[in-house]
C-alpha cells in the first residue's frame, strides 16, 4: 500500500503583512535586499508603520536586481524560508541591516539571529526550495510595470515620486480619505 506524500503548503510573500490586518490602506513595496535605495526606503517604511499604526498594513515583495546584486535572489529566498517559521519580518530587518553580507553562510547566521529553528534552512536555501516564490514576486512586479526598486503601491496604485516619508505620507493620507468615502458612496447608490 503506497502512502500519498503530504503536500507542503508554502507561505508566499503576498500573504505576509505587518500592521493592522483590517487597515484601510495597504502599502506594498517591491524591493531588493542589496539595494541602497531600498535600505533607505526600509527606514521610511518603519517610520510610516509607527506613524500610521492601525491605519496601514505593509507587504514586501521581492524584486531582485540580479544583474547588479548577485546575492539578492538568495536573500529573497531566505526571507521566504523565514516566513515558513513565522519570522519573515525579523529576517527582513536583519537582511537590510546586513545588506553587504548576504552570502549563503551569512544567510544561515542571519537566520539564527532571526530566531529560525529549522535545521534544514541552509539545505533548503542551497536547493533553491523557495526560488519560485521569489520568481513569482518578480514576475508580478514586471506585470505591474515595476522597472526599478524600490517601487511602492498604495491600495494597488503605483506610487510615483521619490519614496520619502513626506511624499508617501501625503499619498497614504489621500488613500485613507478615499477609503473612508467609499462606504458612504455605496450607501447612496
What features would you describe in this structure?
With 189 residues, the chain is α+β, with helices and mostly antiparallel strands. The chain has one domain: Glutaredoxin (3-Layer(aba) Sandwich). The chain is 50% helix and 12% strand. It contains 7 helices and 5 strands. The chain has helices at residues 36-51, 72-84, 88-97, 104-114, 121-127, 131-143, 165-188; strands at residues 18-19, 25-31, 56-62, 151-154, 157-158. A 5-stranded mixed sheet has the order 1-3-2-4-5. Helix 4 (104-114) runs antiparallel to helix 5 (121-127). The protein is globular. It starts with 17 loop residues before the first strand and ends with a helix.
Strand content: 5-15%
> What is the helix tally?
7
What do the pLDDT scores average to? Answer: 92
Cross-sheet strand order for the largest sheet: 1-3-2-4-5
Kindly state the number of beta strands. Answer: 5
| Structure class | alpha+beta
How would a textbook summarize the main sheet?
5 strands, mixed
CATH topology-level name: Glutaredoxin
Number of domains: 1
Low-pLDDT windows of residues: none
CATH superfamily: Glutaredoxin
Radius of gyration: 18 Å
Shape annotation: globular
The helix fraction, in percent, is 40-55%
Kindly report how far apart the N and C termini lie: 60 Å
CATH class placement: Alpha Beta
Level-2 CATH architecture: 3-Layer(aba) Sandwich
Query: H/E series, N to C?
Result: EEHEHHHHHEEH
Amino acid at each position: 500500500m503506497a502512502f500519498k506524500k503530504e503536500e507542503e503548503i508554502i507561505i508566499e510573500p503576498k500573504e505576509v503583512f505587518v500592521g493592522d490586518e483590517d487597515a484601510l490602506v495597504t502599502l506594498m513595496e517591491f524591493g531588493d535586499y542589496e539595494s541602497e535605495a531600498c535600505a533607505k526606503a526600509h527606514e521610511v517604511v518603519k517610520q510610516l508603520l509607527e506613524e500610521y499604526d492601525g491605519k496601514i498594513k505593509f507587504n514586501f515583495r521581492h524584486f531582485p536586481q540580479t544583474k547588479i546584486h548577485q546575492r539578492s535572489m538568495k536573500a529573497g529566498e531566505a526571507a521566504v524560508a523565514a516566513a515558513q517559521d513565522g519570522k519573515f519580518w525579523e529576517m527582513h530587518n536583519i537582511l537590510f541591516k546586513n545588506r553587504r553580507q548576504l552570502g549563503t553562510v551569512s544567510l544561515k547566521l542571519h537566520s539564527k539571529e532571526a530566531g529560525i529553528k529549522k535545521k534544514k534552512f541552509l539545505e533548503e536555501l542551497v536547493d533553491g526550495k523557495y526560488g519560485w516564490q521569489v520568481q513569482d514576486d518578480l514576475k508580478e512586479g514586471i506585470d505591474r510595470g515595476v522597472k526599478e526598486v524600490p517601487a511602492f503601491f498604495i491600495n494597488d496604485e503605483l506610487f510615483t515620486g521619490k519614496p520619502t516619508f513626506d511624499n508617501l505620507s501625503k499619498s497614504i493620507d489621500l488613500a485613507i480619505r478615499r477609503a473612508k468615502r467609499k462606504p458612504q458612496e455605496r450607501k447612496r447608490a
